[in-house]
């Protein structure tokens, strides 16, 4: 980030922390918009599009090396119209040009994304990621690249125009076609997908693939369902899930001092992370660890879920309720400085007993694991570390609590990494869902309050005239919401309703779903476009079905539609979900692992999913016992509603659901056909666990 005394460029008028980081570059930056695009067109000058985000380490590196370099900046200013984009504010743009990068290079993209575009239709001429200022490891120097692209554009205008046209056509051809099956096939079982995941599974260290090793939350969510279906500790799904979650919980991906997960591990063994912390990663991993705790009762998984929730509330939630986006990996220009420890420092702040315990817990008598310092990885459990000091499990846990507090206070004296405090509707939706689910499984009302505060914040600041905005910062709501914003928020509101049974959330989710259908549904072939059609400066619309770092929003929408159908009995919702599955069917057959969220949603569709309605007094021990069971056990394919006797509801699922005075009655239904109502806890458990109408061979 620049500290120059130069006057600010146009980015100084923006509120995005990422754009503001570039406000004093000597580059004549524009934000994406009509002014920049018109200048490119009128001057017939190609566009240099640079996409990144505030916590991006290599974005910071490229800024220091190139965008703060006067000579390179002069080249950029003389040859191109330069546009800087925050990918978290404009995921619609990022998706299009990341896909272009993939098509051109046959490699996945990343950030910073560097794209050279035609001045008229904004088609990609050349796309890359990070480029060093000087040639390095076979990569061209950025200054040389600028001149080569500009010269090639000037001297080969017709050829480059044809090339850009071909790329545009290729982008269009990646969209799902008109031909698809008429029925979602149930021949693709969860176990079929699991077998493909086995091929990628690291049986030694856990996780999937090689370094850099990402958590892949949608894979883990899918495997949890399969492990639950198999009901066996010998099944591959159980083994993969347990191994991976255990490695993530004990290794360096998890912050053992204050909680929360880092972005990914740079090694195969989960020891050293890339130190940035993303809201959306933690929003996905929190419910996975909570569900694993519910399924297997492992206290270490429960502690990780609690620690993640605590970190979110302490460090990522604004006073008003909205959740912030990211925390940088760097502080003082050095990655990880805020998080790592020197052995001398540890011995200075810990007493001898505490040092012995911490040394055993983290293996601190070995060689430091990160540039001469320690990044904590557990080599044993706190209880096992306690035995080295002849402590019982309770004493060991208390000692570890005291040590952790000492370390936290010491860390607080350091210079903090930058926190990107923009509030994104989509990511808040994910965290609302996570906190609502965690409140149910872990029985902590504080998590529910946190989720409610976020929902109220979005409704107050990011929702107007029945439409959502994308982001809020510095008192300003800005940018048209994308499909992610609607799909993730609807998911969060449904989960929030099931946590507090306040119908305002379910009603809002219902209204948002109808608005999503209006704005994004493809009326020709079905499925949802990622962006709105009207008033857009985008080079095109995009419709995808595979997951990326977050679950695919078409797949999330399919599950939302099915759950809303259970409450509303509105048949078009179920038909839209079916259409999504049939559109994605061929792709799901060929690349199972890329469509984990779609398989999760398809599982709900094919399964004998349950609509559970509890009728009884708000203050009732019987009601509380039944809800505790429904919430505390892993029962993924269900919806749960509660209504007091004689209360009115606008949702058809509650019609004709009654109870005798003072009693709690439970209706367990499938496809709107209800079993004989019961008030027996054991019978309710039996009915909701009776699932899986389709084969799992």
CATH architecture of the largest domain: Alpha/alpha barrel
Secondary structure class reads alpha+beta
The residue-averaged pLDDT reads 92
CATH class of the largest domain equals Mainly Alpha
Strand order of the largest sheet: 1-3-2-4-5
Topology:
Layout: H1 17-21, E1 29-31, H2 34-43, E2 47-52, H3 57-67, H4 70-79, E3 81-86, H5 91-105, E4 113-117, E5 124-128, H6 142-155, H7 157-173, H8 190-200, H9 217-230, H10 236-250, E6 264-265, E7 273-274, E8 277-278, H11 279-296, H12 299-316, E9 326-327, E10 330-331, E11 334-335, H13 343-349, H14 352-362, H15 382-387, H16 393-412, E12 419-420, E13 423-424, H17 425-442, H18 445-461, E14 463-464, E15 467-473, E16 476-480, H19 483-500, H20 503-520, H21 553-568, H22 571-590, H23 596-606, E17 610-615, H24 621-632, E18 638-643, E19 665-670, E20 673-674, H25 681-689
Parallel strand pairs: 1-3, 2-3, 17-18
Antiparallel strand pairs: 2-4, 4-5, 6-7, 8-9, 9-12, 10-11, 13-15, 14-15, 15-16, 17-19, 19-20
List keywords for this structure.
697 residues; alpha+beta; Glutaredoxin; Glycosyltransferase; 4 domains; 5-stranded mixed β-sheet; 4-stranded antiparallel β-sheet; 20 strands
Description:
There is one protein chain. This protein is of the alpha+beta class and 697 residues long. It has 4 domains: 10-173, Glutaredoxin (3-Layer(aba) Sandwich), CATH 3.40.30; 190-332 and 420-606, Glycosyltransferase (Alpha/alpha barrel); 339-413, no CATH class; 610-689. The chain is 49% helix and 11% strand. The strands form 6 sheets. Strands 1-3-2-4-5 form a 5-stranded mixed β-sheet, sandwiched between helices. Strands 13, 14, 15 and 16 form a 4-stranded antiparallel β-sheet that branches. Strand 4 and strand 5 form a beta hairpin. The model has no long low-confidence stretch (mean pLDDT 92).
